[in-house]
Amino acid sequence: MGKTAIVTGGGSGLGFATATKFCKNGIKTYIVGMNEEQTKEACLELGKNAVPVIFDLTNLEGIPAMIQEIATDGAIDILVNNAGINMKKEFIDVTDEEFFKIIQLNVLSIFAVSREVVKVMKEHSGGCIVNISSMASQYGIPKVIAYTASKGAIEAMTRAMAVDLAKYGVRVNCVAPGFIKTKMSEKAFSDEPQRRDKVLDRTPMGILGTPCDIADAVYFYANNESKFVTGTILPVDGGNSIGF
């Protein structure tokens, strides 16, 4: 039998690129998304290996039942915790509610989904989890305090999860994307061309990445080629995190 994966936030952006990579390689992929139209359209585009799961991941109490529904089809081999939100706002203007909203989706839901998926994985000889972090966890970026905190937590969780879950045959790794060429980033850079210049100046390779670059890294972690790799954080950033 082929493998089965879950990709949260797989209806667009980096999640969609990852789901595309999985589906093209014969992996049955459950795409978890809150936007019903977007999620179903993505699955139609991806073809027979894609299955939509319409679910709001901030509904923490509903996560166990959602995962159990997926698990009725059998093993879950791969989990990609990709879903997340950002907010750009001055530090002193961020409210407690706004901070918590980002932590709820970007951290708490990842813990809850991973916990429930691991319960399935441990009954089926293990699996692998790939978390998605950000360059925001590597250095200070202005006006994204809640997002930065959430991505730092994800990287710390990755290491702790890897130690806790190795006994179940579950590997846990993390991809930390740098500046990637997407519709969102292109709009941001067009509004602030000086920001794009700054990004490229400190990126040794001198270019933006593509969603496929992230998908390729996730796919490496999800396959047997990385069978002796766990607890790692992989920057996929053209050298941006070590640039000067």
Automatic annotation (TrEMBL):
MF terms (GO), sorted A to Z: glucose 1-dehydrogenase [NAD(P)+] activity
Name of the top EC class for this enzyme: oxidoreductase
Coiled coil, from the record: none
Pfam family, one: adh_short_C2
E.C. number(s) listed in UniProt: 1.1.1.47
Family the entry assigns: Belongs to the short-chain dehydrogenases/reductases (SDR) family.
Protein name as it appears in the record: Glucose 1-dehydrogenase
